[in-house]
Each structure stands twice: as C-alpha cells, then as structure tokens.
Amino acid sequence: MISMRDAIEAVLSDFVERHTGVKPELKPSKKAHLASSSFLRGDADDAAALLSAHAKDCTLSGVPLLSRVTAESGWLLFFFTADAVDAFAATLPPVKEPDDSYFARRLWIMAHHNDAETPDDPALLDGFYAALMRAPDGEKRFLAAPKTYDGNERVALEQRLSRMAKILLWERRDPICNTPGSDTRPF
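^ thats the sequence. predicted structure below, dont judge the formating
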C-alpha cells in the first residue's frame, strides 16, 4: 500500500509535468501544503494559472486533490482538499497501537473517535499536510490547529479528526518494512 505522501507527490508531479513540461521539485512549505521552486527561472504566475484551470484533473483516490495553486516569488504553492483525506483514509487497513511518542499517542486517541468527514478548516489542513509531508514543525502545527478553538468547539473538532489521525499513523509505520507490494507494515 502506497503512503498518502508518496501518492500525492506522484500524482502532483505527473500533473504538473503533463501541463507545464517541467518535472517539479516538491518541498514542504510554511505557506502552502507543498511548494515547488522549479519555476524560479520561469514564469510561475502563468504556470499557476494554467494548473489552476486544470486543477479538477488532479485527483487522488478518485477525488480532486488540488483546491488551488498560487505563485509567489517564483514558487508554485499547492493547496490540497479535505476530500482527498477522506477518500484516502477509506483505503487504509486498521493500524496497530503506536509507540509511546506524544504525537503518536495523540493520533491514536484521535483515530478512535467517530468516523466523520474531515473538517474543511484551513489551519487544520495546513497542519495535517505539514505533518504528512514531514515539514520540520508539521507535528506541532497539526496539534496546535484545534487549539485556536475554545472549549466545546475544540472538543467537537478534535472528535472529527479520526481520518487524518489514521493517515498520519499509517505514514508513521516502520519504514524498514517499506517493500513494494506489501499491503501491511508493522509499527
């Protein structure tokens, strides 16, 4: 089973190359879910407009992956949908109880809440995709996003993060077992 991170990178790379002729170098970003500096010497504004016009063609697990593409200082900035999280989470087998790291234990708790659609909250999506793409502060950003809400709103939001938590737990499984064709991997 391919990881969501690898699937996003493959789908997005193919999409950008197909529409621009340039194979992007994708990197985590504090300003977007992923970014590409491949257009520093080209026209990032034109590329962003072209990719935005065809964004519906970039799909993951049968649903649109891209919500928008922008350009800033020669960088392409990619923003993803909450629908992609829901669709990908539906493909995952159950995960085993994680190690004792604080982040993994918080994910384990979140993963056992009721299965609900992923909230379309920009801060939450930023934190999720930062953690997924292994941005240096990704775990912190994901855990901090619900803290912008107070009391009952925060509890209600955290109880809707089951699918995000399952994906992040799946991504954290033991990389030594990362063999092609393997459907399950232990922690």
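The chain has two domains: 4-80, 95-175.
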